[in-house]
Amino acid sequence: MLTTTKECLIWGPGLNPDTVLPVRYFFIQAVDSKGENLTLSPGKDTFKVKIGSLDTNEYLRIHVPPPLDRGDGSFLLRYRLYSTAHKGLKIQVSYKDAAVANSPYTIQGPVHHEYCDCPEPDASVWQSVMQCPADDRQILDDFKSFPTIDLQHLRQEVPHRFSNRGGLIHYAIINNHVYRRTLGKYTDFKMFSDEILLSLTRKVELVPDVEFYINVGDWPLETKTSAAVPILSWCGSTDTRDIVLPTYEVTHSTLETLRGVTNDLLSVQGNTGNFDTPEQNSPQFMSSSLVYFCLCYKLLNFLIEYLSLKEIALKLQLRQTGQPTQHADMELVPQLDDHTAACRCERNSYKEETDVKDEL
């Protein structure tokens, strides 16, 4: 039973303004009178959380659902910004009207929303904020087959061998802009690769310019053991050489958490209670979507999308021979340009002011 509030623990990336994610989140750990972590739930409605702008005159669009009870004495609080908190945020966590841990927490602004195009110019700073590992074992294993990547050969070989195999997207990221052309008949799923690449370029300057192919079909492509070409895919196998990304379903749900999807890598942490009647009576028919995300949660975390893509981009850049190019038949994949993307990027303002001063 929870008997103290000051000894509770609150931590997570959602308390750092520089960790820009579609949905920010942090954890609350309940403790007992001895200061020991509870290992069972004290009740799903134990904690109340209120988040607002530090500027009382600022209208802030934000969605803050109740904390998710993880069933082990800890809670997950998620919140999604739909506008930028320019001065910052005030986060209040309470238990029976008593402040929890060091609440209230102040997050100095600006705190940008997901669609604000305001990339961090220093990639190393972004990697530190995102707590990127030095290396990813899966990515290292996938790239063993590609010590060097001849771009000229890649541009000839991939269309020749695979353009009739379903759906391929040829991408180039040049000066942090995303360009693409489509190959094959079934390329509608490019929307999923588009959105994660755009999301990444909104968050960090992708110092390396890169050129690559993504397979948006349902089956890996490259079966050669020698002279293989690198293709990024959402699927792989032990007898293919495709470089595996998190699936399009994980990609889309990560970007649409608290917006357009029901299950994602965060929500499944609290979806551990009773099933609806059909599943309760026939547990063998439990929701495949829920099982899928529960399994993915064991293998991935909410940051994995950005970390994987950033490291893959770096590995590609280090191995590529030749100049990544925006080809004539490629089109720009634009960032959103509507009310959902409205924001004032103070990094850009600072950069423009610095450039003017340098010119003077």
| Number of structural domains | 2
Quaternary state of this entry equals single chain
Whole-number average pLDDT?
83
Q: In total, how many beta strands? A: 17
Q: What is the CA–CA distance across the termini?
A: 65 Å
**Total number of helices:** 9
From the alpha-carbon coordinates, what is the Rg to the nearest angstrom? 23 Å
Based on Cα principal axes, name the global outline.
elongated
How would you classify the helix and strand content by structural class? alpha+beta
Report the uncertain regions.
Answer: 274-306, 349-360
Widest sheet, order of strands: 15-14-13-11-12-17
Describe the sheet with the most strands.
6 strands, mixed
> Helicity range of the residues?
25-40%
Which H/E pattern describes the elements?
EEEEEEEEEHHEHEEHEEEHHHHEEH
What portion of residues belong to β-strands? 15-25%
